[in-house]
Amino acid sequence: MSGSDPKTEIIETDLLVIGGGTGGPMAAIKAKEANPKLRVLVMEKANVKRSGAISMGMDGLNNAVVPGYATPEQYVKEITVANDGIVHQKAVMAYATGSFPMIQYLDKLGVKFEKDGSGEYNMRKVHHMGTYVLPMPEGHNVKKVLYRQLRRLQVAVTNRYMATRLLKGPDGAIAGAVGVNTRTGEFLVVRAKAVVLACGAAGRLGLPASGYMFGTYENAANCGDGYAMAYHAGAELANLECYQINPLIKDYNGPSCAYVTGPFGGFTANNKGDRFIECDYWSGQMMLEFWRELQSGNGPVYLKMDHLAEETISEIETILHTNERPSRGRFHERRGNDYRKRPVEMHISEIGFCSGHSASGVWVDETARTTIPGLYAVGDMASVPHNYMLGAFVNGGIAGADAAEYCAGVDLPAYDEGFLKAEQERVLAPTRRGDGLTPFEMEFKTRRLVNDYLEPPKVTAKMEIAQRRFAEIRDDLSELCARDPHELLRALEMQTILDCADMAAAASLYRTESRWGFYHLRVDHPETDNENWYCHTMLYKDEQGRMSHRKREIDPYVVPVEEEEMAAYHQLRVKTPVAAE
Amino acid sequence: MPIITQAKSAAVVVDEAKCIAEKGCTVCVDVCPLDILAIDEGRKKAYMKYDECWYCMPCEADCPTGAVKVNIPYLLR
Predict the structure, then answer these.
(1) Where is the signal peptide (chain B) (predicted)?
(2) Phi/psi at B13 (5° precision)
(3) B57 and A220: CB-CB below 8 Å?
(4) Closest approach of chain B CAs to the CA of A49, in angstroms?
């Protein structure tokens, strides 16, 4: 790439949605349905047809609030308890009440959910308390359904553009975003009245134990762009120390998946074939028990199915090997793993940020608004806990409808041309160098240090070393070299990952207690300290550009939770281990 | 520092007898979330250009002629 002036196209829209995976398309769809005249553009780093966490569909809804099985109040209580009380209940309630209407909407569009003989949804129990799982054995077509609806509603789409920074107007409201084409290096500046961030998890934060950088749980394209953009724009991010850490198929690093197999009788077992946790629903406490079992000499931990009947196993295979991560079957085949004969070896994943399964993210209220006027966040990167795919759809829909209304009340803001020039220079800097350090090695080193120093159990002195080492890598950015647009994409992602690593360290150091089981287990602050830390922790960039923190009080609950109920998720370990069969 | 290149094995394999990239097909390249596939300008066939595969399989599922096979990357097998 040469050092000439960047090619730049500037376009205008009303609503810009950044990210075309799950929540993003739904935000665009619901904005268009609210106001068909609204100009809506989806900017996608890959291709909307197959991008994001559900590129190959989904094998089930993990948090469906279906009348007759659960009420929104029960769901809000369960999620509050599973997250040690640190939740913005109004946002969880907004999700819970929108859950069933969204299932019906998706059903109408052609997404297939499991139903019984009388056409009722076939709900299953996986959570500790309530019944929220709805299988999708034919859930491989979700992206096709979304894409068809985007086309029908004439939503504009730009594929292969990576958004790099948000633009703001003179009054601090959102004014659009800067994008760069990952195949040509050309810029697309989108001026907009409102922006929905839907960029997915920070899934390339820790390094998988295999050492393979793209062997992540999350779609590896979801590397935390949304967190970094929100941070640099001045938005607040909540509870980032509540990491995502998942129990996954060892080496394959994908879900095994207990939510699918649990209702059929499969379960998580130790090397004796014994059950050691009462509930396979992913929570910090569940991960703590998983980690303890690995430490105890009873490891490895397995997903056990070899006691099930042949018809059951065939059904499980069909679901797991055709949806979400279909290459699971290929992995097992090569290893000689057969669910009938041998349990599947599992392991603890590397760390990441993802509210889909955890509780951290860009702070949003019950209307998906961030702390910046006109900026919304949805899906895995927004702070609504345990949101999964259905949460991305519901909150995406909420954001789209609210943003449509917001757009009606504002004019297109001006943006700072000096900021745009500086951003273009930052983006292109790695392309101005003939040699230096590659994005690959700078990313590898950052993520290796994340494993070495940030993984729980968290130790203060180690996290401080991490901060020093990350600062050294930041200095090395002056040598980062990208020889073509693809390497530029990775160079920009690497900087996003470094931002997220710094946020993970700073957020973890700020909360001087232990909470959320394994997710924030601080060895030198082992107790949960409700007196000082029963609050959200907010991380933001202050006026001097420093990473700063503040506490945010938890809003009064809309669903009260009794003291003794609050401890339900703390008693996950099976009391006296019993034989599996 | 000067940059060097190193050999890697390709997890995504394209059957060139079946690949119809010479007719203008770019489906596998279009759908890859990590943008790791490309069309070889000389041979006019699709190939895996970057060792950044998430083994997610849209390339294989969407290929109109069944030319693409996704293998689990060696480091994970």
Answers:
(1) none
(2) -115, 135
(3) no
(4) 7
